[in-house]
């Protein structure tokens, strides 16, 4: 199964996203947003940025 973004409302009433791998493990999560739409836009931003992102080793 492919990974997926989940958008959810936290206990404080803010919206957050998390990226889950195919095995269900959370591999990334986002900050708190005021609206569900803003959280969804956050996932879209991550998708765009990651599409061409390089892996860089930092010493």
TrEMBL record:
Gene3D superfamilies the record matches: 2.30.29.80
Ranges of residues in domain DUF1508: 10-57
Protein name, entry field: DUF1508 domain-containing protein
Source organism of this protein record: Nocardioides albertanoniae
Highest rank taxon of the organism: Bacteria
InterPro entries: DUF1508, UPF0339_domain, YegP-like_sf
